[in-house]
Amino acid sequence: MNKPKTRRASMLAAGSMGIAALAVGPTATLTSSAAPAPDGGTASYLAPYFTAADLTGDRQVTVADLDLLVDAMGATGADAGWADVAAADLDGDLVITVADLAALSQRVLHDDGDFALVEASAVEMQKAMNAGVVTSVQLTQAYLDRIAAYDRTVVDTSPTGRALAAIIATSDVALEAAAASDAARAANGGPSSMLDGIPVLLKDNYDTVDMPTTAGCGCWEDNQTDDDAAMVEGLRADGAIILGKASLDEFAFGFTSQFSAGSEPGDTVYVASPYATDKTAGGSSGGTGAAIAANLGAIGFGTDTGGSIRVPSSYNQLVGVRPTIGLASRDGIVPLALSQDTGGPMTRSVSDAAIALDAVVGSDPADPVTAEADDRAPESYTSYLDPEALAGTRIGYLASMLPADVTVQRLWAQAVADLEAQGATVEEITIEGIDPVLGEGSGSTNEFKHDLDEYIAAHLGDSVGARSLRAIIDTGHIVPSRASTYDRREQVTEEEHDAWMESHTAVLAGGRELVTGALDDNGLDALVYPSGRPYGTHSTNMRLSPNTGLPAVTVPMGQAVATDLSVTGAGVNLEFLGREFAEGDLLGLTYAYEQATAHRTSPELYGPLEGDVVEGTGGDETAEPGDGSVTVSAPAKVTAGQEFTVTVEQSAADLYAYDLSVGFDPDTVTYVVDSAATDDTGSTYESTGAGEVGVTHTNLGTSPATSGETTLATLTFVATASGSTGISVEELETVTTDGTTSTVSDVAATEVGVRKARTTTEVDLSSAKVAKGSKVSLVATVDADGELAPTGKVKVLVDGDVVRRVNVVDGVARTRFKARSLGRTKVLVRYLSDDPFKKSKGRAVFRAVR
Predict the structure, then answer these.
(1) CB-facing half-sphere around the CA of 261: CA atoms within 13 A
(2) pLDDT reported for residue 33
(3) Number of Cβ atoms within 10 Å of the Cβ of 607
(4) Which segments within 380-474 are labelled E, that is strand?
(5) DSSP sequence for 240-266
(6) In the beta sheet, which residues pair with residue 660?
(7) Which of 200, 254, 363, 671 lies most in the core, judged by the most C-beta atoms within 10 Å?
(8) Which residues of the chain have pLDDT under 50?
(9) Does the pTM of the predicted model rise above 0.85?
(10) Which of 121, 181, 273, 308 is catalytic?
(11) Contacting residues for 255 by C-beta, under 8 A, at least 6 apart
(12) CA 773, CA 826: separation in Å to the nearest integer?
């Protein structure tokens, strides 16, 4: 509907972009509430979909952008000012319509529908918090409840079932931090970043001021550090809620995630995969992998020296990012081998990984290898999240990195087909001299003692007695099977360490140059290869990234099936490796692959708890779709001057947005401006013209469309003339969730009968006693039921004789007449009404004296 509008007002409907009431308590469950909404905060999610149509210049779509577009409804490409709104002409028809408004609205970070905690992404959590469906406190409490219910409970009833054992500690101050985040969101009108209020789990080798850092060892259970690791500082600065510490393979040693923290000396605890609890979750970041896969936290962080992020990510169907060495500071992380150590996110989606990475990158004088990070990191990795990022790319692979495993062969063939379907060219290449690079071992043997001593000197809590590797061994409070390994590492001398570092770093530098050259020479955007096989690694695949220092992102590629004769349902990941500091490009490629394939599955053993699904504040998502019919209802009879309500309803089916025009006779009724309302959530706009009122409404973001009996508008009118008057729906244009539009005209009408308004007339005289021959002042006040002031004339009779006819102005008539006779004199005032008022009369008496 493109009629010109003379006035347009914006009214946010209930529940729009608000903040729900806080509920803090040890057993609180997720609840929902609605609140009036500000226009949004300062956080930007820079994925192209969410920025390309921004009209206000803040690189996000908010209600402010909708306001601008509504003002331009009906504008065409030939109009002056088209350039100001052209970006939001999302259907490309050179006309701004309600369809464009709906499409723009879907890019608002908002969802007032039902919220499901299990598998929720950070984006979905922000949408729900923006809509007032949940709070950070409620999210945090829900994850704490899941940890309490699931982590040390054997829920797998098979004979070999085990507990996850993914969590070493939870924070005592997480709920307090979440409450602060909620308060700031309410005060600021939105989140400070895309991590604001999001609960995060850390591998327990990241220092935290509010929880000890054990590195998985019982010997360091009292390691309460004075400060956070640098990456943790970044997370807190972005508003993340540090929920707890995830278990790990003790001192990040290997891929099986055995740890002794929290157990008796001599005991070992194993981290289980949530998909098959008799299998390991991988390592060394196995606790993070198991916890995030089982939805015990929103986002996780691990560390990777030779595969410790990517292996558990593959085992647990997660996205794992091993960044370029030098992108993020390792200061405050218990080291294994600093030549190859790096920290990075482990998440259920690529978008979560990009959001998490934004918070932790940057230069840090305490870790000199990060000197270039500030110059090499983009403003936001989310800006690379384009579902079409694979189109036109060239992807290479090495045949030697493809295992013969039946599952992997099948999944690899499908992955190649999927990549090519998205527009990528996939080709086999060879790299002369790659074998020595892949054959270079980890620095964990020769570097561990040296690097651990540096951590102990700089960070270890004062109360910890075991302040050397030898002292750690001597406590006996370690994983018993690791004693001999620790002994070998303890015997490495400084001379051996220095000699190793000279040769090792040369291999790494050469590897980086070799692989980068291969990418350049072949015109490749990335290399790809399987991260491993079901619950296992393959050859030296995990070494390519650490032995070159180049970044890698691993993403789910699929699962084993029964005919593979493997572990049915076991995950296998596809790993993308790129140039130095090219994490953004890799995240774009993996995002496009993920969006096209959606391979991740959620572990069935760890489904929703009671309270993990929250009813939204928007429309009833269970309502049966209607037939599209429209009705108009109003009172059959009203009295002139009385306000009455007209309700326009539709039996709706998938109604996301609409533009409604209601016609009326301006000679018989008047519309009460700003009275338009709807019982739906979202953003509602009103426009008025001669004999017409328009209501434009859109849901926000991914809020569910409306079905069933839906009130499109309630409108308030005042009857101004007696008789019968009509109210009609002149036109209704609707838009469904997928952008399908339909327009109907003259679809419904109703008649309202208007009775004349009863009036009363009061007469006031200037005095009850006057001198004969003097002037008497008279004021006649005519009141009517309702909102209208009576008009017409009054006839003034004195002792039955007409002495005056006076106009009534705003319900009042004033006049003067002479007192002609002595004695008691009667005054009668007759109100001679105009439509729509009834006649009335009033009386007064005065006495004339000499």
Answers:
(1) 29
(2) 33
(3) 13
(4) 394-397, 425-428
(5) -EEEEEE--SGGG--SS-EE-TTS-TT
(6) 695, 732
(7) 200
(8) 1-7, 13-40
(9) yes
(10) 308
(11) 249, 280, 282, 283, 284, 286, 307, 308, 311, 537
(12) 16
* SS3 assignment, position 814: strand
323: helix, strand or coil: coil
Structure tokens at 183: 């308060």
State both tokens at 197.
């209020």
Q: What is the pLDDT of residue 21?
A: 24
What the block records as the tokens of 787 is 């909102």
Structure tokens, 583: 């994490």
Surface-to-core class of residue 458, CB atoms within 10 Å of its CB (0-12 exposed, 13-18 middle, 19+ buried): exposed
What the block records as the tokens of 180 is 């602060």
Whether 668 and 719 have beta carbons less than 8 Å apart is answered as: yes
Amino acid, res. 59: R
Instruction: Check residue 28 and give its pLDDT.
Output: 33
Query: Looking at residue 43, what is its pLDDT?
Result: 65
Structure tokens at 796: 């003034």
Q: How far is CA 593 from the centre of its chain?
A: 22
Nearest to 679 by CA among 700, 649, 646, 643: 649
User: Of these residues, 5, 127, 203, 245, which one is catalytic?
Assistant: 203
Q: Catalytic annotation on 203? A: yes
- Per the CB < 8 A criterion, the answer to whether 699 and 707 are in contact is no
Distance from first CA to last CA of the chain, Å, rounded? 76
Does residue 32 have an active-site annotation? Answer: no
Q: Is 284 assigned a catalytic role?
A: yes
pLDDT at 764: 98
Confirm if 160 and 173 have CB atoms less than 8 A apart: no
- How many Cβ atoms are within 10 Å of 292's Cβ, its own excluded? 33
Contact assessment for residue 239 and residue 192, using Cβ atoms and an 8 Å cutoff: yes
Q: Residues 6 or more apart from 432 whose CB is under 8 A from it?
A: none
Phi and psi dihedrals of 401, rounded to 5?
-95, 10
Say which DSSP state 475 is in. Answer: H
Q: What SS3 string covers 335-390?
A: CCCCCCCEEEEEECCHHHHHHHHHHHCCCCCCCHHHCCHHHHCCCCHHHHCCCCCC
Distance CA 94, CA 413 (A): 44
In this structure, are residues 120 and 154 in contact, taking their beta carbons and an 8 Å threshold?
no
CB distance 761 to 843 below 8 Å: no
* Backbone CA torsion sign across 620, 623, 627, 629: negative
Residues in the chain: 850
**Tokens coding 155:** 């829920």
Of the candidates 427, 444, 66, the one whose C-alpha atom is nearest the C-alpha of residue 250 is 444
Distance between CA atoms of residues 644 and 715, nearest Å: 8
| CA dist., res. 370 & res. 796, Å (int) | 96
Asked if 200 and 235 touch (Cβ cutoff 8 Å), the reply is: yes
- Answer for the pair 398, 431: CB distance below 8 angstroms, yes or no: yes
Give dist(CA 334, CA 454) in Å, integer. 10
Number of CB atoms found within 10 A of residue 563's CB? 10
Distance CA 846, CA 720 (A): 37
Q: Which of 260, 284, 442, 531 is catalytic?
A: 284
DSSP 58: S
pLDDT in tens, 324-336: 999 999 999 999 9
For the residues of 509-527, what is the DSSP string, one character each?
HHHHHHHHHHHHHTT-SEE
Residue 746: exposed, middle, or buried by beta-carbon count in 10 A (0-12, 13-18, 19+)?
exposed
The 3 state secondary structure assigned to 745-804 is: EEEEEEEEEEECECEEEEEEECCCEEECCCEEEEEEEEEECCCCCCCEEEEEEECCEEEE
